[in-house]
Amino acid sequence: MPERFVLIMAGGSGTRLWPASTAERPKHLLGLAPGAPSLLDETVARAARWLGPARIWMITTAEQRPALLRAHPEVPPEQILAEPRGRNTAAAITLGLLEIRAALARRGEASDDATVIALPADHHIGDPAALEAALARAAEHAAARGVIVTLGIEPTRPDTGYGYIERGDAAHPGEAGPPIYPVRRFVEKPDAARAAQFLASGAFLWNAGIFVLPLGPSLAAIREHAPALADALAPVEPALAARDAAARDAGLARAYDAVPALPFDIAVLERLSALDVLPVRLGWNDLGTWAAIHAASPRDAAGNALLADAAGAIEAIECEGSLFWAEGVEIAALGVSGLAVIASGGKILICPLDQAQRVRELARRSAERRGAAS
User: Fold this and answer.
1) 246 and 294: one domain?
2) CB 269, CB 275: distance < 8 Å
3) 352 lies in the same domain as 242
4) Domain count of the chain?
5) What are phi and psi of 224, to 5 degrees?
6) For residue 374, what pLDDT band results from cuts at 50, 70 and 90?
7) How far, in Å, CA of 312 to CA of 348, rounded?
8) 246 shares its domain with 360
9) In terms of DSSP bridges, do strands 80-83 and 181-187 run parallel, antiparallel, or are they unpaired?
10) Do residue 59 and residue 133 come from a single domain?
11) Do 264 and 318 fall into the same domain?
């Protein structure tokens, strides 16, 4: 069986979870509640149970790498990679694939036969066993056919906040296990009417950003469909092969001036003539807003999520359907409904849960104020 690796993408900021998520403590270093294991911790633990720490790679930014090294000493430090700056997932995945290929080549192994599973570091998975089974199924299919497989979440509601994948009508024949389908097209976030049509059709899946990548064919696809990205990183490859850290870092600093900042699905996957999708049910939540945190959290009989660390406390009387997040402070609320009340880092956010997607605007204004004051 070809070697399998996990590449954890851990370079984002998650400004929609401000003020708990900041540049200094990005979303993947938060837990589902104050003081809980971080989303990155949970992602690493799942990968370690499946493949072991030695087969885990991470990619993050130079600023965040020290925090990842401290948090996960079980992962070989040379496998915690740093980009000079975040340039979205196409660059992160490409650099990760190049680094893994170079490491295998230095060991004299058949690098292009490996399979790499690219996982976001900041998603919640309610059913880890289902994810492991799905990744094993997708990895087997990807290696056998030399085709990229993406996981598509079976939608539970007509959500307008996710991109969608339309699968083909017929699954690939002659394979044991859950069916895998050709991808027909990607659709960006739809309006409510289209989202309802997608749900009713049964042919559309949420795009979770989880990719199973046969290494050689994936790099070939990047060279064909994202030549600017491949060309920008090509001068760095000799330094990776020689394990020359100084030349690597200098080359990446130059390369990232020309690297396009694009998601991997837009830069590569949407351009492929052959791409497959495995529909899955994982209890998945991308935790992109405070409303998503509320939905993924335990709630009391009135629908409130009361999330406090050891130094915090929450008293909610006659409140309904709200989220309270207390780090080191006491929150007292009376007679409110449908609110997010977030106290973190000396800041307090109060907003309706149904407007939580607008929080990044407040994060931007807060950063501007800090910049003006400095």
Assistant:
1) no
2) yes
3) no
4) 2
5) -75, -45
6) low
7) 14
8) no
9) unpaired
10) yes
11) no
Residue 214 CA to residue 219 CA, distance in Å, equals: 9
Average pLDDT over residues 233-238: 96
Looking at the chain, the whole-number percentage of residues with pLDDT higher than 90 is 91
State the Cα angle at 177 between 148 and 168, rounded to 5°.
50
CATH number at residue 123: 3.90.550.10
- Confidence band (pLDDT; 50, 70, 90) for 373? low
Task: Please enumerate, as own/partner, the contacts of 327-330 that have beta carbons within 8 Å and a separation of 24 or more.
Answer: 327/20, 327/34
Read off the pLDDT band of 328 (50, 70, 90): very high
For residue 91, is it left (φ>0), alpha (ψ between -120 and 50) or beta? Answer: alpha
Token pair for 258: 């020309």
Least confident of 204-208, 322-326, 364-368: 364-368
The residue range of the domain holding 35 is 4-285
Residue 154 identity: E
Are 329 and 245 found together in one domain? Answer: no
Reading the block at residue 259, the tokens are 């690297």
